[in-house]
Amino acid sequence: MSHIPLRHGVFLAPYHPVEEGPTTWLRRDIELAQHLDKLGFDELWIGEHHSGGYEIIAAPDLFIAAAAEVTRRLRFGTGVMTLPYHNPLVVANRMAQLDHQTMGRVSFGFGPGLLMTDALMMGLDPDKTRDMMLEAIDVIVRLLKGECVTAKTDWFNLVEARAHLLPYSQPLEMAVASAGTPSGGRAAGRFGMSMLCVAASQVGAFDVLASNWKIANEVASQYGNTMDPAGLRLVAPVHIAETREKARENVKHGLDRWIKYYDMAAPNPFPRDGRDPVDVLIESGRAVIGTPADAIAMIERLRAKQGQFGVFLAQHVDWADWDPTLKSFELYARYVMPHFNGANANRTATYNVMHERGEELLALRRGAASKAFAQHEAAERNKT
Question: Is the pTM of this model over 0.85?
Answer without folding.
Answer: yes
